[in-house]
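Write out the 3D structure for:
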Amino acid sequence: MGEEAWQLSNPILGVVAIIATFLLFYIVGYISNRKSKSVTDLYVAGSSIGPLTNGLAMASTYMSLATFLGITALILQLQVPFIMLWIQLILSIPLITIIYGTSLRRMGAFSPTHFVRERYGVSASIIAAVFMILVSIMYSLGQMIGIALAFETVLGIPYLTGLIVGGLIIVGYITIGGMAGASNNAAIQMVIIALMFIVPLGAIMKAVGGSGWFFPPLLYSDMVPAMIEAMPNFFDYQYSTKWYVSLIALTIGSLGLPHLAMRIYTASSLKSARSAMVWFAFIIGLVFSATYAMGFVGVYATETQGVAISAADADKLTIILNLVYNPEWVTALVIAGAISAGLSTLSGNLLAIGALLSQDIFTTLKPDLPEKKRVRLGYIAIFAGGVVSILLAINPPAFLVVSILWAFGLAGVTNAPLILVGVWWKEANKFGAIVSSVIGGALYIVVSPFVFPQIVMTGHEVTDGMGLSGAMLAIPVSFILLIVVSYVTNRMPSLSSKLTTKEDHALIERIHGWKDIHPRRYNSTMGAAITVVFFTVIAIWAVMPWNM
């Protein structure tokens, strides 16, 4: 079938499914957020979300539209090694909760950047906020691309038209709904995502002859012999050891994503946040396993069933498989599920942009700004962030997931070191934080193939495009700079008056739940030295040949 054939022959089915889901989301968003009078209500839903709802919302926010579209295209490129990448992503919310989520929630922070402001000062927080806005916009970019592709498939309209129409509808919903609407809707969206992904996948597996169709996430082993015969290298781990090590950058990056961390703060209690983490791990494990199964079945169909999918249509793999093997009304529901996934993640990202601009930049520069104006600025910032994402999506990258994974790397370089070191090491100070963010962030951007294509780290398009090679170099550099510059400047008498050492130490003790201050607690010089040596070795390894 040609590229132009991958669309619904009866657009009304898709339109009805999309309108029904949007009406549901708008109603829930309006009801949930009609009493938002403060920034706490707008951004963290008054910290009133229960564990199951929050666990579903965490999973839905993290899923993104890439789960339906971009990720399956990446499986076509990477095959089995993609599993290692997926494992890194699943670790995010549990690690956020364990490593710093509880501490920051105890502190009463709206976002990780709020912690940066309290820990390192205004200048460091504004720099971190600017980088995090870029991270959130790049993450939103992938969702906008996927939404445009979904509308293109449903209505048979050009990509640009689908981008503008779908993008503006969704940005409007998020602006109206706030975090309460986003959290309650995200829970509903997660149920839709799971049903509209796993159930049709079972039907596809049955159609291609798989006997484990009744539990698609795991029971596709009977299809493996035919896959090996058709594509002998599918299960080969064909990349070097360095490539697999570089995937850890995605885990570190996820620790710095503001829209994920904000979900911890919406919980009604610390116990609720921990319970939500368990629900998140279970739900996301189920759907992530099904995502890999969808990619597996896609490769199986192209290699053994004669389904031809062009490189330009790779992002539409899930939709194409449903068009080939399922009735059109099922495909319409799948597309509605895909849009639900994009909607949920965009909610988290745009709300993070709103919090970063209104809370971490405007309020920092104008601390006496009235509450009412701060809420209004938040709504404006949310809408503006959505519009910028739409404009950037006009000329998208080859794979929609590339911009999302690149955002992970930037978060890992500019935000994660400041949080991880700042929470667990008292010596970290504002000079180290500023130098680490600026130089590390600039390095990551410079080695990106999107900015200076002539700078080549690996020569492997997908690896460089996802930011894996750049992050493997820039993340260690950021950690090294933060630790070394902090250690040196803490011992320079001329700078002692510009540091708030006593207050910083008290803050660290308080967020960990201690009522006293102990000088040796969270203050290991040996631990800092070992960290510097370790990351120095990784940085040197990163610039050596990758042999891809």
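Confidence is low (pLDDT under 50) at residues 36-47.
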